[in-house]
Amino acid sequence: MSAHDFDAIVIGSGISGGWAAKELTEKGLKVLLLERGRSITPADYLGEHKPAWQFPFRQLGDRKRYERDYPIQSTCYAFGEPTEQFWVKDSEHPYGQDPAHPFRWIRGFHLGGKSLMWGRTTPRWGPINFEENKRDGHGVDWPIRYDDIRPWYDHVEEFIGVSGQTEYNSPFAPVGRFQPGMQMNACETHVADSIRKKFPDRRLTIAPSAVLTQPLHGRAPCHYCGPCERGCSTGSYFSSISSTLPAAKATGNLTIATDSVVVGLDYDPKTRKVAGVRVVDKNTRAGRRYTGRIVFLNAATLASTQILLNSTSESFPNGIGNRSGVLGHYLMDHPYLTVTGVIPGLLDKYTIGNRPAGVWMPRFHNVDGQTAPFLRGFSYEASASRANWTDGVSMPGYGAALKQRLREYGPWTFGFYGFLECLPYRDNTLTLDPVRKDKWGLPILNARLAWGKNERELAKQLVSDASEMLQSAGATNISLPPEELPPGGFGIHEVGTARMGRDPATSFLNGHNQSHEVANLFVTDGSCMPSVAAQNPSLTFMALTARAANYAVQQMKAGVI
Amino acid sequence: MSAHEEIAMKPVPQSLDRRAFMQLAATFGLSLSVPSLGAKSPALTTDEWTLIGDVSEVIIPTTDTGGALAAGVPAFVKMMLSDWFSEGERENFLAGLREFSAGAFKKHGKKFGELTGSQKDQYFGEALTAAEGGAPAPRAPFVVLMKRLTIFGYYTSELGATTELHQQVAAAKYEPAAVVKPGDRADSGLPGAMYWFNAS
After folding, report:
1. With helix as H, strand as E and coil as C, how does A507-557 read?
2. Which domains, from first to last, does chain A contain?
């Protein structure tokens, strides 16, 4: 024990890393949290509540600098002049893409990672999601079932604060330990009612969302400013900064090392354990090495896989723990498709406050067995809002009449933002570049993600179902997405490249997110997932992290690791 | 009735002349002089800057609230031309501006800045109606770009966002079905991350 610098080393401080740090420190372990980026405090929420005219480019951003430094990041909806400090410069952090099957790697390298800018929609996965790989034979069987994770969903929801509705218990979104949900606006309610009349099994409700409607652990309920991705000084949405890291710090057991780029894990074949974590200082590029009894890898799917692949030894020439050869394969994401329409009427209604939770519709295909001509399904996030002055550029005319028209609220627009489940394919890969390295000596990652036939069939159905539902609500001007699916990474739900499974020959991790081969190595970010479901993944990997931390500490206490 | 006809019948009441523009510029601290701009600033004449200001005021005029000039739209246009437009977009804009200016002179025998308010309004209106009614051009015509710039610059200004429209930054409550009352101004919005502008 005393031979180690720390009881546990957690690599990455985002959504899952913050949870690992909290759980392990609360269980009494001395934890080192390594973060490759800079520290962040609420003082860094530079765009919070700042109106357009206070930005040099009025929220259009410095286009030329973005084209040079942020060509990938700037394609993300949450990137912009009020948030640009939260994103990596693509120019400083290169990676490779397959030109025919590109992948957008959206990243934030700072304390808290993407938890600062995330979308906050936090549905549970349902029992079917953990059984479906086995049912249709795509991907390995999840080594756990819903009942294994259920108490950990409870635990996570209660701590992070999830607001949501409790009337409708979907098989794909079991009702959890929710704070009172936010409400749907007048237009969303109209659309939900219209859909339900025609399609009784399709329920549009407020989405479960990691934004508070009641105070929790010193965090204030939401004040409805709206754009959470600018940061929240009242801590009203869950981030590592607002929630897990303060809890971990309060134990007195946490040491945070920022600007610490992990380049590899050393393997000791005698103990079959990680012997040390190799770090390069981001600024000085000096090397350091830390030791811990256990290691939790939480750098997010792509970066975690990069670290594992780069951790080679005589025992594991293709990456630590990679006896099966699955490491870096089966990359998944959610293709994300938008269908919008104008909803006539309700012109005497508007909303006060900018609600940060969307509405959503859980999956409704293939619910009771395989009934559709395609596998699995999709869910929709959605929202309605009234048009404003930004429509002025597409209206004819000018002068006092135009000014008067833009003074009044425009029509309601309703948007469906569908996420469809992508199957795991071996050829969707992350690999290390044999030649190119980054500034810190880490081989750069090459990513490839191609959609298959099932994804294209789901996409067609997703678009036609959304159009039909909009029509049922009387929509006009229905706008469809391009037929070509968007590139991988666009959903920012990348998972799957270090998957869990029952068989060490076909999976990287066991049912406790522990490496089959390396007893003290746990990977609990999205890379652990053998399927991506059609729900947002973050709540699930938070719950898996808490569950794995509990198991790891039990094993340590039992003297097994 | 087209939007243009509707407007032509109701001339914009307070289209500012050059003198009023200069006064407003002084009042609102607008810099009109080319030398104050950075090295990459487009070389526009004082007349051309005046034309930009006049046109912006035609697009969003002063009514019971301030218009484009009061909101500092020319300074916004200057920033966009200097720092945001690409070289090609800037050239297209400047070529369009000069064509627009020359056309006014050809029609009236006077510089655009010397026309009466209603002449400016009518000349701009005809050009905009032609541009908006015609087939989409490979590059946006000057009048269309000015309309986009003016709308964007106006409604993202403090005057446009908070006086002309209503801005709620943090309502501290959510009312999902609030009732619009007569005279209510639309919300100017505090959008999440990035606005979008089409300069080409």
Report:
1. CCECCCCEECCCCCEEECCHHHCCCCCCCCCHHHHHHHHHHHHHHHHHHHH
2. 1-162+209-332+425-447+495-561 (3.50.50.60), 181-203+335-420+450-486 (no CATH)
